[in-house]
Structure formats: structure tokens, C-alpha cells
Design brief:
Layout lengths: L2 H4 L12 E6 L2 E6 L10 H16 L5 E6 L10 H10 L5
Parallel strand pairs: 2-3
Antiparallel strand pairs: 1-2
């Protein structure tokens, strides 16, 4: 694989993806891309991040992974709005 091929956006994700992935030589760059929610760790973002890490792990040419942001803030932490919704809809039982 040529250097130019390695440096392209390997997933070529649509703009609505929460995690974008690029491979530049031996480095996989995972970019958190949910600025409207300050990159809060929602279920969707965490699933996409786990998938991107699995993909990087399966690539024998990747030796390092960098996780970065796409806007002004790296990550706000847990997605409290999603957590509240999940807790209120959860069946607490008898």
C-alpha cells in the first residue's frame, strides 16, 4: 500500500458519523465528531469509537492510535441527557 493510500480517510465517513477515522502511515487518527453535544459519550459515539479501535487493532500497519476532537472541545464526558432518558424509561420492577 502506498503512502498516499494510507493517508486517505479509510472510512470516508459521512458528516453525521460521531467518529471519523484516518490512517497516516503507522498512525490511526480517531476524531470525535459530535460538536452539537460537545462530543459527549453517548451510546452511539462509544459504539463507533469501539468499532474504530477494533478496526485499528486489526490493521497490522497501525502502530499507534491518536484520539482527538473536531471542534473546540475534546469531550464533555458522559451524555447526561441520554443517561437520564435511559434511566427514566428503565423498568425498575416490583
Amino acid at each position: 500500500m502506498s503512502e498516499a493510500q494510507r493517508e486517505h480517510d479509510v472510512l470516508n465517513p459521512p458528516s453525521d458519523r460521531c467518529v471519523r477515522t484516518q490512517v497516516r502511515g503507522p498512525v490511526a487518527i480517531l476524531q470525535l465528531n459530535h460538536p452539537r453535544a460537545d462530543n459527549a459519550l453517548s451510546t452511539e459515539l462509544m459504539n463507533q469509537l469501539a468499532d474504530a479501535l477494533d478496526t485499528a487493532d486489526a490493521n497490522d500497519e497501525v502502530r499507534a492510535v491518536v484520539i482527538t476532537d473536531s471542534d473546540r472541545l475534546f469531550c464533555a464526558g458522559a451524555d447526561i441527557k441520554e443517561f437520564t432518558t435511559l434511566m427514566s424509561s428503565r423498568d425498575h420492577g416490583p
